[in-house]
Amino acid sequence: MQTNLASWASGTDLGNEADAILRRCVHCGFCTATCPTYQVLGDELDSPRGRIYLIKQVLEGNEPTQSTQQHLDRCLTCRNCETTCPSGVEYGHLVDIGRKIVDERVERSWGDRTRRTLLRKAMLSPMFAPAMRLGQSLRGLLPQALRRKVPERRDAGPLPHVGHHARQVLMLAGCVQPAMMPTIDAATIRVLDAVGIGARIAPGAGCCGAVSFHLDAQDEAVAQMRANVDAWWPLVQDGKVEAIVMNASGCGAMVKEYAHHLRHDPVYAQKAADIVALVKDVAEIVAPHAAVLRARLPAGMRAAFHPPCTLQHWQGLRPLSEQLLADLGFELQPFADKHLCCGSAGAYSVLNPDIAIELRDRKLGAIAAASPDVILSANIGCIGHLQSGTETPVRHWVEVVDEQLRRAAQA
Predict the structure, then answer these.
(1) Per-residue pLDDT reduced to its tens digit, 103-117
(2) Which of 70, 128, 193, 364 has its CA 20 to 30 A from that of 8?
(3) Backbone angles phi, psi at 36, to 5 degrees
């Protein structure tokens, strides 16, 4: 695609990056076939090709409008289009640039600004955990719209002492997972312990930055990235850990992009690159030990695996994850449109509930045809979003493996 950037964008880091991405797009339209919002809304401007055209117009000097902003906001950032694109267009990075530029030029309504700010601050607040516990205790009394955002609380169970293991890894505390679903972190620690790996959370490491980055606070997100690098760096530099393990694919996808977001920072660029080289999804760590675990697990369970977009399109880990689950004895049931987004997408399901619920129900309809006993996934957002629309249990796969191991030990 030919471009003619406006003077304010030409020659800048942001302009150069956007220009390189735009020039790879040939407007073939393959991306429209796998874009969730285009399938739901049927509007070309709510497809990757349409949004690319809108961003190109802005970079070439056209003034963006609230309509431009809305079309960019509606993107789930699932990156399914990147998996589909034959030209290797890095659409995810381009839409980040487009949103940043448009947000600087188009003032949001007071209500929209307030909603986004409150959502961001609430999720990152130290009061989130006690508020979530209160919500869980009163869950039966909550309105349905709020109840579907509050998962039932489950006991995380005891944690093993893992300091004696020769192999040690770090985990990310994150922002909402410890409060909403503490069983995921606890299960991860126990499953890794079962294969001789000690896992711990580094003091000072917090939110990966995704919440702020996608809610109009990119500078705040970059500061969170630097804080995590600072928290991990002493342990990484001393060679005390072999990996930084992610059990939320959304966090893993964001942390794996730290090197990109900090590439122009003279202090953090190399550190971020070194950190990214150590980041692994929990499936990548467990996969080599599947046979050892399988020998301790009971007969297979009929399951449907929903691969989050951040796992399959951002990180390319769907094949490894599905093979791991099969090796662990799960009877994986195929279902249609596994590549499509479920509509969760972080804060998206709060900001765009109609689209999110339609995508959720489409996904659950496809899964229901497979009649699984349990729906497995690898990201807290997807798990909570899907569970809000079905009675079939939706769990992180590591939780189910942990439960099976504990039952086998008790037996």
Answers:
(1) 999 999 999 999 999
(2) 70
(3) -60, -45
Helix (H) or strand (E) holding 408: helix 397-410
d(CA 58, CA 119): 28
Could you tell me the CA-to-CA distances from 50 to 56, 76, 214 in Å, in that order?
A: 10, 14, 20
Lowest mean pLDDT among 129-133, 186-190, 227-231, 335-339: 129-133
Instruction: Determine the Cα–Cα distance for residues 97 and 99; give it in Å rounded to an integer.
Output: 6
Q: Are 189 and 396 in contact (CB under 8 A)?
A: no
Token pair 């006690």 is found at 130
Structural contact between residues 302 and 373, judged by C-beta atoms closer than 8 angstroms: yes
Confidence bin at 136 (pLDDT 50/70/90): confident
Q: Alpha helix (H) ranges present in 256-352?
A: 258-261, 269-276, 282-286, 290-294, 309, 318-327, 348-351
Q: Residue 281 forms beta bridges with which residues?
A: 246
Its sign, for the CA torsion 150, 155, 161, 166, is negative
H or E element in which residue 98 lies: helix 91-105
At 64, is the secondary structure helix, strand, or coil? Answer: coil
CA distance between the termini of the chain: 63
**Looking at this protein, which amino acid is placed at residue 147?**
R
Q: What band does 142 get if pLDDT is binned at 50, 70 and 90?
A: confident
Q: List C-alpha distances in Å: 244 to 122, 166, 316, 361, 400.
A: 26, 15, 18, 34, 22
Q: Is a pLDDT exceeding 90 seen at residue 387?
A: yes
